[in-house]
Automatic annotation (TrEMBL):
UniProt-listed InterPro entries: Benzoxazolinone_Detox_Enz, MoCF_Sase_C, Pyrv_Knase-like_insert_dom_sf
Pfam families: MOSC
Residue span, MOSC domain: 28-170
Organism: Roseateles terrae
Name the UniProt record assigns to this protein: MOSC domain-containing protein YiiM
The organism's taxonomic lineage, starting at the top: Bacteria, Pseudomonadati, Pseudomonadota, Betaproteobacteria, Burkholderiales
Amino acid sequence: MQILSLNVARIAPLVVNGKQTLSAIRKRPVDGAVDVGPLGLTGDEQADPRYHGGQAKAVYAYPAEHYAFWQTVRAQAQVADWNSPLPFGSMGENLSIEGLLENDAWIGDVLVFPDCELAISEPRYPCSKFNAVMGFNKATKMMVQSGWCGFYLAVRQAGTLSAGQRFEVRPGPREVSIAEVFRAKKPKG
């Protein structure tokens, strides 16, 4: 299991359903080590702290294994070329990870990095901003139907993270997985 890309964004205008709003969903990869504190990565912002950020949702991780699906559906929706790769960070994630999917991610499990520890706290529930960055209005619904939501992480031990770092999972109580919590809440799509 490893971080394939480390991504951050500043708050910027985003047009959602014809109206301008502020968002930091358009994450972009960064090089080198980035400090991680109790509220997330240095250089990353959240426009609406009611739904994003805070100690329980300091960092957002998304499995890179789902990227081929999103590239395909964007091409089918005719908002991208079939051969255009979807850059990491496109889901709004801070960590584009490999090797840990929602069914195997349990609330309370801890991702142990060489210099940092992050605890899995809850699934990400998509909103209309996700439709806007994906370029088509069914993206949120497709995330809900697939259950490929990624997950938020709370910082247990501050430190640094960088692309290419490997991590291990230290099991928590293993009572409920991210996939189970996501399905139980049944977010609107």
